[in-house]
């Protein structure tokens, strides 16, 4: 295991500044050598931070490692693959006017770069996903109040999920996998893990939305809900395409197109190409999440990689089955176009059961590395046992105080 140094927040900030700088100053005329001269320091610094540093907290390391490699993937997109000034433009701008002219002031380019960097889902830009929840129409004060309320609710939900995790013997290190403690502890452990992840992500999003709208940086319409409706998730493909957040959609799509067309040289008009695209998306997503496990464990872990790899397999099977049942011929439809019509209620119920069973089987790939790293268990914080003892202690103190005050 390589020697690990304290995590450098200054280096982490430097990579972000270099990325914003590149988006600001690069144009269609920027040479590939200039682009590489900016990208290489970002890549080397990112790899150093993931492989050779630690914050001292395995949970923080996991989140940071993933975030750093996500930023690296965005750098690949915006610096090496995409001509940001020409190919990315505001959503309401006519195509004939898209792109930035060479005489646009530097400050305007900088504001544009900040907007792109802080809007990973592309709200208001040409790559904004069509599957996002509807934007808010609430007045500014009402919107801020609602997001603060949601943030508090999400924080409480995350606290409850953390207590569930710390209280679960399947996650405390007694075994090497959550699968080894029987179906009850496995099910409750997986549920708590997923609930905690969703609550933490949603809390951060709600706090940022309340702050940005509250101080006037952006409007309520720029902050649609992060997650879609769970009732849309009657297939694994719909879960990832509609219910889950779409924060990584843009860089994943861009990198996937580059890999499939430029590296693998696969033509887009072949019957199998949609499935190649699909599995490449999940392959790249798995590689990005490897960073979190490496930083958490201090060595290479493949749990997240396996998890995302099998998601591509599941969606591929769903796509093939959808084509067979819809009698669409021998040509495979893309996952995004598969099953356009809403199925009947009984079919959706079967779909919900299938999705739940699928994640019950596949999520242990994500959970197990945390067990090895000691990310869960009573040593991490509150458990139901400690809460019950605390409640009993508070009750005794209150009753004693009431009794003595009445004498």
TrEMBL record:
Pathway: Secondary metabolite biosynthesis. Residues 223-309 form the Wax synthase domain. Keywords: Membrane, Transferase, Transmembrane, Transmembrane helix. Signal peptide: none annotated. It is a multi-pass membrane protein. Its main location: membrane. It is found in: Membrane. InterPro entries: Wax_synthase (IPR044851), Wax_synthase_dom (IPR032805). This is Predicted protein. It comes from Laccaria bicolor (strain S238N-H82 / ATCC MYA-4686) (Bicoloured deceiver).
């Amino acid at each position: 295991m390589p020697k690990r140094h304290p995590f450098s927040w200054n280096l982490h900030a430097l990579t972000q500044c270099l990325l914003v700088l590149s988006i600001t100053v690069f144009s269609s005329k920027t040479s590939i050598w200039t682009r590489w001269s900016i990208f290489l320091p970002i890549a080397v610094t990112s790899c150093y931070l993931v492989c050779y540093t630690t914050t001292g907290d395995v949970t923080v390391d996991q989140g940071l490692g993933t975030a750093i490699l996500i930023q690296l993937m965005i750098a690949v997109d915006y610096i090496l693959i995409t001509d940001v000034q020409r190919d990315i433009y505001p959503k309401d701008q006519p195509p004939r006017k898209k792109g930035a002219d060479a005489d646009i002031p530097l400050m305007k380019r900088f504001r544009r770069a900040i907007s792109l960097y802080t809007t990973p889902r592309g709200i208001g830009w040409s790559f904004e996903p069509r599957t996002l929840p509807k934007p808010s129409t609430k007045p500014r004060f009402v919107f801020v109040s609602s997001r603060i309320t949601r943030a508090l609710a999400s924080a409480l939900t995350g606290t409850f999920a953390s207590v569930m995790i710390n209280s679960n013997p399947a996650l405390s290190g007694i075994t090497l996998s959550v699968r080894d403690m029987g179906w009850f502890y496995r099910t409750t452990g997986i549920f708590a893990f997923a609930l905690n992840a969703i609550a933490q992500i949603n809390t951060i999003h709600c706090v940022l939305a309340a702050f940005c709208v509250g101080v006037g940086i952006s409007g309520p319409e720029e902050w649609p809900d992060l997650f879609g409706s769970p009732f849309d998730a009657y297939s694994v493909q719909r879960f990832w395409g509609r219910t889950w957040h779409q924060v990584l959609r843009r860089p994943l799509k861009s990198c996937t197109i580059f890999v499939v067309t430029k590296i693998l040289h696969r033509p887009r008009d072949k019957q199998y190409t949609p499935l190649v695209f699909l599995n490449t998306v999940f392959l790249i997503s798995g590689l990005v999440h490897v960073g979190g496990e490496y930083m958490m464990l201090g060595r290479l872990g493949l749990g997240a990689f396996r998890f995302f790899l099998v998601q591509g397999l599941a969606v591929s099977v769903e796509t093939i089955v959808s084509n067979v049942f819809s009698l669409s011929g021998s040509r495979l439809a893309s996952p995004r176009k598969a099953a356009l019509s809403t199925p009947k209620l009984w079919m959706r119920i079967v779909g919900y059961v299938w999705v739940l069973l699928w994640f019950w089987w596949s999520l242990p790939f994500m959970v197990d590395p945390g067990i090895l790293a000691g990310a869960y268990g009573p040593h991490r914080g509150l458990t139901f046992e400690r809460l019950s003892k605390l409640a009993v202690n508070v009750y005794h103190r209150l009753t004693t105080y009431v009794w003595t005050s009445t004498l």
